[in-house]
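BUG-698 | component: ligand-complex export | severity: low

The export step for adenosine-5'-diphosphate jobs runs without errors, but we want the raw record kept on the ticket for reference. Input record follows.
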Amino acid sequence: MSDLRKLDIQYLKGVGPKRAELLASELDIHTFHDLLYYFPFRHIDRSTIYRIADINGDMPYIQIKGRFITFTVAGEGAKRRLQALFGDGSGTIEVVWFNRVKSIQQSYRSGVEYLLFGKPTAFQNHYSIIHPEVDEYKPSQPQMGLQGVYNLTERLHSRAFSSRTISKLVNTLLATDAVKNIAETLPASLRESRRLMPLHDALVAMHAPKSIDELHRAQFRIKYEELFFLQLNILRYIKGEHDKLDGYKFTQVGSYFHDFYHNVLGFELTGAQKRVIREMWTDMCTGRQMNRLLQGDVGSGKTIVAFMTMLIALGNGYQACIMAPTEILAGQHYETIKALAEPLGVTVALLTGSTRKRQRDVIHAGLQSGELQILIGTHALIEDNVKFARLALAVIDEQHRFGVAQRARLWKKSDTPPHVLVMTATPIPRTLAMTVYGDLDVSIIDELPPGRKPVHTVMRYEDHRYDVYRFMHDQLRKGRQIYVVYPLIEESEKLDLHDLQAGYDTICEQFANYRVAMVHGRMKPAEKDHQMELFATHQAHILVATTVIEVGVNVPNASVMVIENAERFGLSQLHQLRGRVGRGADQSYCVLMTKFKLNADTRRRLEVMTETNDGFLIAEEDMRQRGPGDIEGTQQSGIAFNLKVANLATDGQLVQLTRDDAQAILNADPLLESPQGRRLDAQLHRLFDKTVNWAQIS
Ligand code: ADP
Ligand code: MG
C-alpha cells in the first residue's frame, strides 16, 4: 500500500509543478494526504433550482437556471468589470465579474442554458451575483447533490484557482488506487461498537456527500478518529510516566490543621472548599502519589484550600512548597501564608531569583535540616541545589505557565515523589482540561464565599472617556483605588509601551490631586515591587499597568478596573483582570474601553463580559470563539492541536467517549503489543512524531 504522505502532490494528474507550488505556498498542501484531508469548510445544496422572481434579500448561495442575455464591459482600470444580464423567464438578474473579463465573455454563449450558482446581493434596487459558478445545463445529468466549498486565498483566486478547481483535483485524487486502497486506521471492534464509517468512505463523503446525513456520519467518523488518537497518545504517555507511582502516605490530618481550623481561620469554609479538601485528603491517604488540578474561579478561595492541604503535610511531619510564575505573585503568597502560618508556629521562607546569597544559604540549610516547613518561590525552587529533607506536597499556582516536565522536576526532589496540587488562575473548559492536563485528577471549587457582590461591568467607547473619568473621580473621592490596564502584545511592544506612557501621562494630568503608580513587564523587579507597594499600601490611588497585574494581585480597596483597548484581550484574560476588583466589601466596577466602534463579532464577544461573572461560562465561550489553540496555556504547553474537524469546544461528549475507548484499549493492551496495538502504535508515530512529544515538553 502506498503511503499517501509520501506521494508528492505535483504528480497528481492535473497538478504539475506550477500548481504544486501554489498549493504548497497558499494551502500548505504538499502531498496526496494533505489534499485528501483538505476538507470543504461547508457544503452547498445544488439539488434545488430557484426562480429569479423568488429571490429576496437574505438568501444564502442559491442555484438558478437560465440564459445570458447581454454582456457589457464597464469601468476602467481596477474598476473594469464584465456585467451580464441573465434571465430565466421569471425575471432577470445582473451577473458581475471583476477579473478575467475577456476569457469569460468568450466562454459563455447566449442561447445556451446554464446553471448559475452564487449568492445574490441587493444593489441599487436590483439583485446581482458576483463571480458565480457557471455550468452548462445538461438535463440528462442527474442533479448534483451536496458540493464542497473550499477555502482559498486571494492569490489562488487571482490565478483562476476556484473552489471548483480543488473539487476537480479531489475527484481525481479520490479515484486513484492509493486512495481506494487507503488503510483503515481504527480497530474493527471500535468501528462496530461506535458505528463508524470505514475510513475510505468517510473521506469520500467529507468531500462529496450524497446527503446531509452521510456528511454528518463522515464528520463523526473523522472527529472520532482525531480525538481518539489524541486521547490514546495522552493516556499512553500518562501511563508510562505516572501510573502507580508510590507516594507519601499520610496517616492523620494532624494538629496544625485542627489548630488552624478552630483557632485561626476567621470564616466558615464554603461547601465546595470543604469538599475539595476532603478529596485531597482522601488522595493523600492512599499511598499513591496525588496529581490533582484545582480549578476555581477568581476569588473562590483556592489559596486557603492549598494552605490547609499543606498543613496536613506538615502535620504528618513533612515539608511543603508553593511555586508561583512571577516574583510578584510569589511575594504575595509569602505575605498571605506567613500571616496565616505565624500563629501556628509554622516556619515559612521566600526564595526567588533575587534572593541574596546569604539568605539563600540560610534557606538551603533550613530545608535540609527540616526546620523550614514551607518554602514559597518562583522557578528558583526547581533549581538542582534546592534540596528538601522531606518534601511531601508541592503546590503549583497558575499552572498554565509551567509544563509537565517542570512538574516532573519537582518530583525528583526526593526519592518518593511529592503529592502535586496544581491551581489554575482562571477556569479552563472541561474538555480542554481533560486534554491538556489529562494526567491530573480534577477538583472544582464551584462556589464563591458568601457576600461577594458581582463586579458590575460596562462597555464604553472612546467618546465617553470623560464620563469614565468623572466616574473615576467619584470613586476616588469615596476613598477607593483604581486600576487602569493596557494591553501589551509582544510583536508591537514598543508601540504598546508608548501607549502605556501616554496613558499614564494623561491620567496624571486628569487626576492631578492623586498619586499615580505604574508597572510594566520591562521594569526592573525592584522598581516594579516599589510601584506595587505604593498601590498596595494606598499611597498611590491609581495604578496604571500592563497585564503584569493579571494574576494574583490582591488589593481589596481597589474597586474599579478600567481596561483600555479591551477588544485586544481574550475573554479569559479580561475575566482574570476583572478578578482584581470585587475583593472588598464595596460594589466594584469594570469598564471595558474600546477605541473605535466595534464590529458585531467583537461587540458580542465583549458583551459576554457584561452579562456574566461566571468564569467557567466565560472560558467555554472564549474557547468557542477563539478555538482551543488560542486559549492561554495551550500554546506554551506545547501540545499541537492539529484537529481539523473535531472541536474541543463543541465536541465535549466525543472527547469523553474517545477517552473512555482509548483507556479501554490501553487497559487490555497497555504497551500496544498485540497486532491491533502495533497498528495503533504505528499510527500514533505517524501522527505525533513530527509534533511536540509529551515527554519533552518543558
Ligand atoms: P483565589 O486564589 O481562588 O482567587 P483567594 O484564595 O485569593 O482566591 O481568596 C480570595 C479572598 O477570599 C481572600 O481574601 C480569602 O481570604 C477570602 N476567602 C477565601 N475563602 C473564604 C470563605 N470561605 N469565606 C470568606 N472569605 C474567604
Ligand atoms: Mg489566587
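Assignee comment: Attached the raw record above. Residues 302-303, 552 surround magnesium ion (ligand 2) (CB under 6 Å).
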